[in-house]
Amino acid sequence: DIQMTQSPASLSASVGDRVTITCRASQSIFNYLNWYQQKPGKAPKLLIYAASNLQSGVPSRFSGSGSGTDFTLTISSLQPEDFATYYCQQSYSAPLFAFGPGTKVDIK
Amino acid sequence: QVQLQESGPGLVKPSQTLSLTCIVSGDSISSGGYYWSWIRQHPGKGLEWIGYISYSGSTYYNPSLKSRVSISVDTSKNQFSLKLNSVTAADTAVYYCASLYSSSRVRYFDYWGQGTLVTVSS
């Protein structure tokens, strides 16, 4: 099975900060990596698919990069509505899917 | 805009069967490229993919749950369902239905239901 890790597990940041979250796969998943945002009590929301493609309607301050085993999600200027938990998810091993453990972004 | 809505009991007794239904609106469940999935989230924890079904009825389940899970589809009602049998307290979670878009180059969960909390308790 492909294992997904994320770092950090949590971070504190201020509005306007540049935030980077890392996701690592235990083997190459090429670009089969998606990112989701989840706010408390809400369903996850797709932000980025195939490592670097911005989902329709998602603000351009979100960006994704990477391939193989190492991926990053970057928020260029953190906004108040961005405080949430972020999950990566690999789809290389489809039809088996797995999510990373999540990174919680809260207010400093 | 596709919308998904879960429904079902919020409380299930241990050893019984958890049954949930997801109604899809805004598009046909028979739309090409889509698979219909269940994902759960234990309280305060991460996301666990349970399984999916195609409109034609092909299924695939998470091996960790395969012996207890069944997903079915009713295209006439534009809905799909989850059954998880022999539940224990460890199955207490928020259950989400979601659409999985799949092509040769991309696969992602793009639309999600709001989620429903199922508690296993006597």
Descriptive account of the structure:
The complex is a heterodimer of chains A (108) and B (122). Helices cover 0% and strands 49% of the residues of chain A. By secondary structure, chain A is an all-beta fold. Chain B is mostly beta strands. Chain B contains no helices and 11 strands. In chain B, the strands form 2 sheets. In chain B, strands 2, 4, 5, 6, 9, 10 and 11 form a 7-stranded mixed sheet that branches. The mean pLDDT of chain B is 96. At the A-B interface, strand 5 and strand 10 of A face strand 5, strand 9 and strand 10 of B.
Keywords:
heterodimer, A: 108 residues, 7-stranded mixed beta sheet, 4-stranded antiparallel beta sheet, B: 122 residues, mainly beta, 11 strands, globular
Please report the two chains with the greatest interface, counting residues with C-beta closer than 8 angstroms to the partner's C-beta. Answer: A-B, 24 and 22 residues
Structural class of chain B: mainly beta
Overall average residue pLDDT of chain A: 96
Instruction: Indicate the low-confidence ranges of chain B by residue numbers.
Output: none
Low-confidence stretches of chain A: none
Number of strands of chain A: 11
Q: How do you describe this structure in short?
A:
Chain A has 108 residues and is an all-beta fold. Chain A has strands at 4-7, 10-13, 19-25, 33-38, 45-49, 53-54, 62-67, 70-75, 85-90, 98-99, 103-107. Chain A is built from no helices and eleven strands.
